[in-house]
Specification:
26% strand; 450 residues; eight-stranded mixed sheet; alpha+beta
Length: 450
């Protein structure tokens, strides 16, 4: 049996925005006393939660045209928790900036799609409204400037746009957790987990420094979560299609967020333009999307780990071939690879940017070096298809979260759900004050099912 120096009630592996949100919930709203937060990097949120690794958007589902109404209801409820947390804990707006946002339709087909969407979604999003060319020009003049088309231009528009530095949000969650002096919280930064095993009623987590034990383990390590799950015999029917996003910078040509209508059959985000979180003088366009065999962007040491996660089975090969050979996806992936090629990529990508800002010049676009993260898209090896949304794998007193977009937007909802699961793992003597959790986040009127 492994020798552990310390036994924790809960160990959280991974200190991105999801792991720190869970720590915030466990430390402030449960009677769990001893918690370990284990992170391989020296600081929290240095991977996909870092501001350079995502689009910095708080997704509500109002202008994301690939969201169904049912998905938008769930995402809106979850994102509202984050919004309320920010409004109550970030009065100086050090974590977020607020911009207006819109989804832009060009041509009758897209305009009709937005009209239908507005009719379906307006009761869920009362601040959402349809605006025409003149109204678009008044808020985003560069969207209409030099637009050489007689086609109809329409947009779904709202003032409720939040751009977030998710690393700073993770730091805030951590500070709120540590402020509870009655709890024993051990931070293990710069500590890489080598192995997780189970003996009896305890999990043993082996690191380079020591072995610790925990009654319950929550793995919130993004794409690495599936690798840990498989090492313990869970998630065998899943693989990952790692989709990497890249961005281009331009001068501040937009006053707020401008999305484009989602392409049919594609689960990946359509190109959009966004002001940087605290710098409206810089606009970021993207993301591009290309499949790469890595668990972390720009970290080539994760290639072998990716193949261990994906598996080298016949089912995995058939699944990836079936997904990537679909003509619409194949064309999209190939084109997105070209976007990253020096000289050629910018000249092709500017055609996408001109759909948003027709007057943009080639000299104004600059490839954003070292920007972009990984979206770990779930592949079901049984159905041989991609599964949209997050994957949560549950084991005996252990859970694994794999959170592609909009995982950051739903981090507090995931924390609420996982806190309930962890309490059920630990037993009847443990409690989660869910009512106070929701009250503190301004959601006391939300229907609570206990």
């Amino acid at each position: 049996m492994p020798v552990a120096q310390t036994v924790y009630e809960v160990a959280i592996i991974g200190a991105g925005v999801s792991g720190t949100a869970l720590l915030y919930s466990l430390s402030n709203y449960t009677n769990i006393n001893r918690i370990a937060l284990i992170e391989k990097n020296p600081e929290v949120a240095l991977v996909n939660s870092h501001r350079t690794s995502n689009s910095q958007t708080l997704h509500f589902g109002d202008i994301e045209t690939n969201y169904t109404l049912e998905k938008a209801k769930k995402v809106n409820k979850a994102a509202s928790l984050v919004k309320n947390y920010l409004l109550q804990n970030d009065a100086r707006q050090e974590i977020y900036s607020k911009y207006h946002k819109m989804v832009l339709a060009i041509g009758k087909e897209q305009a009709d799609q937005l009209r239908n969407r507005y009719g379906e979604f307006k009761s869920l999003f009362p601040d959402l409204r349809l605006i025409d060319k003149d109204q678009i020009e008044s808020v985003e003049p560069n969207v209409l400037k030099e637009r050489e088309t007689d086609e109809e231009v329409l947009a779904l528009f709202t003032e409720e746009g939040y751009t977030i530095d998710y690393q700073k949000l993770a730091q805030s969650f951590l500070q709120q957790a540590l402020a509870n002096s009655h709890k024993n919280i051990d931070l293990m930064m710069g500590t890489k987990v080598k192995r997780i095993t189970r003996e009896g009623d305890l999990y043993y987590i082996q690191t380079a420094r020591e072995t610790i034990a925990a009654k319950v383990v929550a793995v919130t390590a993004g794409a690495h979560s599936l690798l840990f799950a498989k090492s313990l015999g869970y998630g065998k029917d899943y693989a990952l299609l790692s989709v990497a996003g890249s961005f281009y910078f331009a001068p501040g040509v937009l006053n707020g967020k401008v999305y484009t209508v989602q392409l049919k059959k594609l689960p990946f985000a359509a190109i959009h333009g966004d002001p940087e979180v605290h710098n409206q003088s810089q606009t970021r366009f993207g993301p591009t999307a290309k499949a790469i065999p890595m668990l972390e962007r720009h970290h080539y040491g994760t290639i072998w780990s990716y193949f261990k996660t994906a598996g080298l089975s016949l089912d995995a090969f058939i699944s990836f071939f079936k997904i990537l050979s679909e003509p619409v996806i194949l064309k999209y992936i190939v084109k997105n690879y070209i976007y990253d090629i020096p000289f050629i990529g910018k000249r092709l990508f500017i055609k996408e940017v001109k759909r948003i800002v027709p007057s943009i010049k080639l000299s104004e676009l600059k490839f954003a070096q070292k920007y972009g993260g990984i979206r770990p898209q779930i592949v079901n090896l049984k159905t041989k298809s991609m599964e949209l949304g997050e994957a949560k794998i549950l084991g005996e007193n252990i859970l694994f979260n794999i959170t592609p977009s909009p995982g950051a937007s739903t981090c507090l909802q995931n924390a609420e759900d996982d806190t309930e699961r962890i309490i059920s793992f630990l037993g009847e003597q443990y409690r989660f004050d869910k009512n106070r959790f929701l009250q503190d986040l301004g959601m006391e009127n939300r229907q609570i099912l206990i």
